[in-house]
Every structure is written in structure tokens, then in C-alpha cells.
Specification:
- The structure is a single chain.
- The chain is of the alpha/beta class and 237 residues long.
- The chain has one domain: P-loop containing nucleotide triphosphate hydrolases (Rossmann fold).
- The chain has helices at 54-61, 84-94, 110-123, 131-141, 157-169, 187-202, 214-217, and strands at 12-23, 26-38, 43-47, 69-74, 77-78, 95-99, 175-179, 207-211, 222-227, 230-236.
- The strands form 2 sheets. Strands 6-7-8-3-9-10 form a 6-stranded mixed β-sheet, with helices on both faces. Strands 2-1-4-5 form a 4-stranded antiparallel β-sheet, with helices on one face.
- Strand 7, helix 6 (187-202) and strand 8 (207-211) form a beta-alpha-beta unit.
- The longest helix is centred in the C-terminal third of the chain and has 16 residues, at 187-202.
- 41% of the residues are buried.
Length: 237
């Protein structure tokens, strides 16, 4: 697969993106002709209720699935129809994920959890500098430089989410996808995580935040409201 190549292109460009599922005799249109562009360094929220299509769109943007119709360019490269193996390579090289449930491996230390994307990249024959050094740097970036040897079970929910953010950052991705990143946190801890994402944005990171919560979405500079598989409104701040 060719490298992501166009530094002047927007990080995300989607055109007529659709996704249809067949469930028995029923055809479900989860996405219907979605089009938008996200510039480098933008902070965008995808907002909508359950069933609005926002999770389906996030899966397509994260190269976890492919569209039924339409095109998706990531960093100037068309990733719409890539094979499963090539989508995995794109995810590892260009996308950092932050999930509501943290998705940390409990038997590994924080440092080892953050190193995982780098180890996968090594399996793809891409030589890396010291993986431990890069992972420790990412943990320091999220304020957990003193928790390198701790297991996830020894951390608070907010600290575990910070580890997940460090794992998303460690490959220096073009895009961070944060799916309900405060959903399992109390309001105060959630506010701390949103402050951290805001700081990453201020440092030039491109962030897509997926949420059903208007107060969470308000932290983004641009909100795309979704309903019935379409973008029905856009608000910029």
C-alpha cells in the first residue's frame, strides 16, 4: 500500500459516504450520503443520539469498516476500499483511538500498554527507536510519568483514560478518534480528560470526538449533528 502522501491535503475528506446493513429481510441504512472535510489541527465533535449513525461513521473514519458507497480520504490517500490487512496498517500508522472503556490489558503495566502499537508496527517491519523511551514520553505528556510500572487495576478511572490517550499518541498519528472518552468517568474526572484533549488540540493534534452529550461536544470547535444516518446541522464556535 502506498504511503499517506499529501501534506497539504485535509486530514479527513469524505464524499457521499454510505453504509447499509442487511439484517434478515430488512435493509438498514446506517449512513446516508455523508460528506464533510476536516482540516489538520481541527477539533470536531460528532454528536447524536443512539441510532443516529455516529458510531457507524466513527468505525468508517477509524478504518474499522468499509463504506457501502462513497469515498474516504485520510491524509490525501483514498482508504475507502482497502483490505482488512491494509486497514490495520493505516490504523496503526495514522489513527489513535481513545475508547469509553479504556481497553487496557490488565496484566500489563501502563508502559507496556502504551508500547503495544509500537510492537505491532515492528511486526510490520518498521524499525523503531526505543519503544520504552517513546512510551515513557507519551505517559509524561499525559501527566503519568510516575505511574510507568503500575497496572491498570492500580489506577483510577481518570488515570486509566490518560494511559489510553498516551497509547493513542505514541505513534504520532494524524488523527485521534475519541469515542465517548468521558462516558465511564465522574463529572470532575471527565472535565480533566476534556482539558487534556483540549491541550492536545492546542498543540496541533487533529481530534474527532464522538458523543451524545451536548456539554462534552461544546469543548470542540466544530459540532456535526447527526440524525438518521445524515449530518443535519453544523455549529462552529
Amino acid at each position: 500500500m502506498s504511503e499517506m502522501r499529501d501534506a497539504m491535503a485535509p486530514v479527513i475528506a469524505v464524499e457521499g459516504l454510505s453504509k447499509t446493513y442487511t439484517m434478515g429481510s430488512e435493509v438498514v441504512e446506517a449512513l446516508r450520503g455523508v460528506s464533510f472535510v476536516v482540516a489538520a489541527g481541527a477539533y470536531v465533535a460528532l454528536m447524536g443520539r443512539s441510532g443516529s449513525g455516529k458510531s457507524t461513521l466513527m468505525h468508517l473514519l477509524g478504518c474499522l469498516d468499509t463504506p457501502t458507497n462513497g469515498r474516504y480520504w485520510l491524509n490525501g490517500a483514498d482508504v475507502s476500499g482497502l483490505s482488512r490487512r491494509h486497514r490495520a496498517e493505516v490504523r496503526n500508522r495514522h489513527i489513535g483511538f481513545v475508547f469509553q472503556s479504556f481497553n487496557l490489558l490488565p496484566r500489563l503495566s501502563t508502559l507496556e500498554n502504551v508500547m503495544l502499537p509500537l510492537q505491532y508496527r515492528r511486526h510490520l517491519h518498521d524499525a523503531q527507536p526505543s519503544e520504552k523511551e517513546l512510551a515513557a514520553m507519551a505517559l509524561r505528556q499525559v501527566g503519568l510519568g510516575d505511574r510507568i510500572g503500575h497496572k491498570p487495576t492500580e489506577l483510577s478511572g481518570g488515570q486509566r483514560q490518560r494511559v489510553a490517550i498516551a497509547r493513542a499518541l505514541v505513534t504520532n498519528p494524524a488523527l485521534i478518534l475519541a469515542d465517548e472518552p468521558t462516558g465511564n468517568l465522574d463529572s470532575r474526572t471527565g472535565a480533566d480528560i476534556l482539558d487534556l484533549l483540549a491541550a492536545l488540540h492546542e498543540n496541533g493534534r487533529t481530534i474527532i470526538l464522538v458523543t451524545h452529550d451536548a456539554q462534552v461536544a461544546a469543548h470542540a470547535d466544530r459540532i456535526l449533528h447527526m440524525k438518521d444516518g445524515q449530518i443535519v446541522d453544523e455549529v462552529t464556535g
